[in-house]
Amino acid sequence: MKKVYLGLLGFAIAGSVVAQQPRTESPAQEYGLREAAPVERVEKPVQSGQRDVLWSEDFADGFDSPNGTWTTDGANADIWEYTTEIQAACWSGGADGAAQMSTRENGFMLFHADDFNCINPGPPQQFNQDPLAGELISPSIDLSDHPAVLLTFEHWFRHCCSAQFEVWVSVSNDGGETWTDFNVTGNTPVNDYNSNNLTSVNISAAAANQSDVLIKFVWNATGSSSHYFWAIDDITLEIPPDDDMALEGTPVYSVHDPNEDLWDNLEYSIYDINQIRPLVFSASASNVGATEQTGVFLEVHISDGAGYETTLNSGSLNMAVGQIATFTLDPYTPPSTPGNYTVTFTINQDQEDANPVNNSATRTFAISDGEFARDLGSLTGFVNLGLDEYWGGNGFYFTEAGAIHCIGGALFNDSEVGAFFDYELRAFSATGLDFVANTDLGTVTQAMLNGGGGNNFTYLWMEGGAVPVFPGDEYIPMFHHFGGTEEVFVGLNGTSPDFSSYVIATFDTQECNPCYTTSTYMVRIGMSEEFCESMIEEVEDPNSVTNIEKVSIYELFPNPTRGITTVEYSLLDVSRVVMFMFDMNGRIVYSNDLGVVGAGDYRHELDFSNLAAGTYTFSIKVNDKHETKQLMIR
Is residue 159 within 8 Å of 227, Cβ to Cβ? Predict the structure, then answer.
């Protein structure tokens, strides 16, 4: 299969510890579609106990605080704003989508990079530029009597794509003439919220024993990383304990690099037992204490809760005050035992940590005998792309030979009972996403639907039989809504890394064929016949006696036809009637909603002269039943 490589990452050195530097990834283009969705949360570290607070700012008075006046600078300084609106524009979306600082209701500072794009959708606007940079600068702070200083603040940010993205804190002790930078992005994946919104940075190297300290919060991004936001609140300067390490950002169990486009290295939420591949655990940590910490290492504990347990450790190093390091373990292959696995990441050191609560976080993944998935398992949003036909799905990479027997998805409650849908398997080509195969046709029933938090998946068999896969294959299983007045919505849960989830649709402002999206569709693959049989209920044969009692197609004539044909059918009851015709790829090429029709015999002349020669499937749908006949066009 010919592949189009959209960009990737390289592995971090296995078993290593790496001092963290600002990111310098190559700019990449997001094709316009951004649908923010809540993401999996790690256990959120919090500060325990109280330290001596030297200075604080909660932004209750906006830019003009009791400490003095906050100022802004940089190419896009005017994007910084004071707000009490916790669900601002593009990053709203329920409790998880709102700003997550503890005292956000009384106001906070927001670098609102996405505001202009949301208000004015369409092509890139003035704020979507290269670079996008803005700085928020504190009033002068006197720390002349303090030999060690810990900066702690709450923040909530999200950035887009694989373009260069940096947020950091800078400290000056000479009125702004020179600055010392402290990186605060940690290990946060692109297109994701930072999961630990409480961050501590030891700034003693620049601020201790200084009388004129300025603190600057800096957003700097290129390309499509201009999207999204950075919210800041509840800043304190404290006397740090001697010994204190903190986990930074979101730990990962597979290190994905979009500059390589090996979907092999994505984090799959469920691995089919035959598609297990080595995982790479990685996490960042910082020394937020007042002294050097020695023998610092990352411990990773994996358990299935049913007897399997193992513990892995990284190499160790000594960490200077304020240092941030990334710890990466050697590749680990999970056992071939179905189950749910919990991964606990813990930073350890030789010293007794004064605040061990912020040293750990957890992630989860599953091994299944037949299911392969990327979504996080509970519906938190849905795709609403209007009444036109659309497709949405996620990329999968196969490490071993196997077969795709079925595809499934989670349908949202607002889907209309009786509407048609199916799933398609697609692959990259130089021109887009090429059709490979489709599933049987599905008809929405009430039992298929999900509300918020639902995890009821509807699977359909591959129409032409199982599709074989081979090591190195990459496919995109996609939910397919046929369009028309009967809407069907597929659920979302999760945030997709760069260039691994896609939509095909037509909008007022753009044609997505395809567009990359940051949302993870709740679309999964069935990799065994036994699994698919367990998930698929036997569907009533559309030509069964029950259906024929509702509708009978007497004739399509002439058949074959050169374009004009006549259909005669009979209804035995008052029913809603819709006519459809599908091509050999399962796409709807004709539809006609006749509304509610009384019992009786009917005849319609149909003009298909605009269609290419070939064999088509003509269907009359009566309520939630349908009957089909083949029609050949010469």
Answer: yes
